[in-house]
Structure formats: structure tokens, C-alpha cells
Write a structure and sequence with these properties.
mainly alpha; 9 helices
């Protein structure tokens, strides 16, 4: 099956350069993620799971770009004059060890990124039934990833073309599965946070809102999904541009993960700073009240009465309702980033 688009040696150069640029951005965002996870927090308060995932994504991205650079040097320098038909044939040979290894690393990073999105969705909804279909899709991603890497490693007579049916069907299924997993999980996650924020909107005493978190979730999902969809379209059209996009997706997975943690970390630190400022501002009135005791005043507490079908009534104070609602928001924030610092 003949491919179209840019020559494969040109595609290899473009993919490595663009991946390097995105890798640089991911390095900066990794530093921001470490700050968001550890700033003003004791060691016991740091979310070790998210920290470990951030390091794993960095390690996988680093390995991927290093192997890609080696593959580029092999094709354009080391085997330029010895490989039959030159560099284009070298980069078309999917049986090359470097090609197989980069695909395996990319598959691992995809599984890790999709697993994080599903975990966040479960942490927000607190229901396994909500993520059941996403888990099935994640298993499909794992199976198709193993199938595609295995078929590429066993390539012999059809090793000169990645678009042939033996490998193409596995790679197409892989792209479709991970795209569906990301869209569904991110959509349910953003919807849940938005509904919780809307529920407590009338009870909120401050102007803090979870809408910026929803926006960054949507932005990260769009960024990743757009890259996946582009790679899928290029692959279905047998366009060599899919090699360029596929290499770019590796750092994009890390960027999409980091940007959520950085945004939520900034939001949490701002809340901590605001509470510290308020505490300092309230310390002087407290000292004045100790020097000049105030007379007791009468306080009226309003209550809501719930009537059940059997005619019985139950009363709850407004403070209880507000507390339960705000607890839901706190759970949603904890699911995305580490727990709040202890006072």
C-alpha cells in the first residue's frame, strides 16, 4: 500500500524537531507540577501517586525523544549509504528496533495518561458504574497497543509499510479506543465538577468558583483529542504526516496532565494565601474584643424543613446544608491534586 504526503526522511526530521520543542514545554510544566504538588505542604500531605505519575510521564517522554534522535542519526548518518534505497527506505522499515521501541514507549504513556483520566473521573463521581465503559475502553487500548507492537515486531515481508492491513487494523483500533476513552472520561469529569459548582453557587459566601478548573480540563482534553484525531485521519488516509503527529503526541500527553495539576495547584495556593490574609486581618479585632468585652446579643438561626411522604418533617440548619455542599467541592478538588495543607 503506497503512502502519501511528505517523504519519510523529511517526516522524521520534522517529527523529531517538533517533539523536541514540545518536550521543552513539558519540562517547564513538569517543574510547575512539582511546585503545585509540594508548595507549602508537608511530606505527608503530598499526593505521592500524582507525583509518581508525573515522574513516569517525564521519564517516558525523555526515553522516547532520545530513541527518536538515535533513529534519526541512524537513518541519516550511520546507515545513509549502506541501507538499501537510502534513508527513506530506512524510516519506512517498521521492523527497525528503534521504531518498535518508540511505539512501545508511546503505548505505555498512552495507557498511563488514559488511566489517570479514568481515575480522576472515578474520584469525582465515586461510582464504579460511571467508569465501567471507560475501563472497558482502556482495556481495548491495552489490547490494541500490544497487538500493534507485536505485529510490527513480527513484520517480515510487509515490513516496508506500516499502513498494510496486518498492522493498520491494530493501529486504527488503538487510536479510536484512546480517543473515545479520553473524550468520554474528560466530558464526565468536567460535567460533574460543573454541576457541583452550580449546586453550591447560591450557598457560596465568596466568589471562588470551579469554572476555571472545568475550563482547563476541557482545554487539556481538546489538545489531546485534536492530536489523536489528526493522527487517526492521517493514518486512515495513509499519509506520512501521521508519523509526525504520533511523535508529537508523546509530550502532549505529559502537557495535558501537567496543565491540570498546575491550574488546580494555583487555585489551592491562592485559597490558602487568602485565608492567611484574612486570619491576619481578623487578629486585631480579636485583641480589641478581649480588651473590651461585648455584651451578649440574641442570634436567630433559620432552618429548612423537609416534609416526607409519610407526613413527617425534618429540620436542618443552613450551616449543615452549606457544609455538605462545600464538602462535595472539596472532594472534587482533592481528586485532581493533593490534599489541602493541614493547619
Amino acid at each position: 500500500m503506497s503512502s502519501t504526503g511528505v517523504p519519510l526522511d523529511t517526516a522524521a526530521i520534522l517529527s523529531t524537531v517538533l517533539e523536541g520543542i514540545l518536550y521543552g514545554f513539558s519540562l517547564m510544566m513538569f517543574g510547575g507540577t512539582v511546585w503545585a504538588l509540594s508548595y507549602r505542604r508537608h511530606k505527608r500531605d503530598i499526593n505521592r501517586l500524582m507525583m509518581a505519575i508525573a515522574f513516569l510521564l517525564l521519564i517516558l517522554s525523555t526515553i522516547h525523544i532520545i530513541v527518536n534522535i538515535k533513529r534519526l542519526v541512524d537513518g541519516l548518518v550511520t546507515y545513509r549509504d549502506t541501507f538499501p534505497k537510502g534513508p527513506p527506505a530506512f524510516f519506512a522499515d517498521v521492523a527497525q528496533e528503534t521504531f518498535i521501541f518508540t511505539n512501545a514507549v508511546y503505548s505505555l504513556q498512552t495507557l498511563l495518561g488514559d488511566g489517570v483520566v479514568i481515575y480522576r473521573c472515578y474520584a469525582i463521581w465515586q461510582s464504579f458504574w460511571v467508569i465501567l465503559f471507560q475501563v472497558m475502553l482502556w482495556c481495548s487500548v491495552a489490547v490494541t497497543a500490544v497487538g500493534s507492537v507485536y505485529n510490527v515486531s513480527q513484520a517480515t515481508t510487509y515490513s516496508s509499510d506500516v499502513f498494510v492491513e496486518q498492522t493498520g487494523q491494530w493501529i486504527t483500533a488503538f487510536y479510536v479506543s484512546t480517543l473515545a476513552t479520553n473524550l468520554l472520561s474528560s466530558g464526565l469529569l468536567a460535567y460533574r465538577i460543573w454541576t457541583i459548582d452550580r449546586h453550591v453557587g447560591t450557598l457560596r459566601a465568596t466568589r471562588n468558583t470551579a469554572i476555571p478548573i472545568v475550563r482547563v480540563l476541557v482545554d487539556s482534553a481538546i489538545l489531546y483529542s485534536a492530536a489523536l484525531f489528526t493522527a487517526l485521519v492521517c493514518f486512515v488516509c495513509t499519509n506520512n504526516g501521521q508519523f509526525v503527529v504520533a511523535d508529537m503526541i508523546t509530550p502532549i500527553i505529559s502537557i495535558a496532565f501537567y496543565m491540570v495539576l498546575i491550574r488546580v495547584g494555583i487555585s489551592k495556593n491562592l485559597r490558602v494565601y487568602a485565608s492567611t490574609v484574612r486570619s491576619g486581618a481578623n487578629s486585631q479585632p480579636l485583641q480589641d474584643s478581649q480588651r473590651h468585652p461585648l455584651r451578649p446579643i440574641q442570634v436567630h438561626i433559620s432552618q429548612f424543613t423537609e416534609r416526607h411522604k409519610d407526613g413527617s418533617a425534618a429540620s436542618r440548619g443552613t450551616s449543615d446544608i452549606s457544609k455538605n455542599a462545600f464538602n462535595e467541592v472539596e472532594v472534587s478538588a482533592i481528586a485532581l491534586t493533593p490534599v489541602l495543607p493541614r493547619p
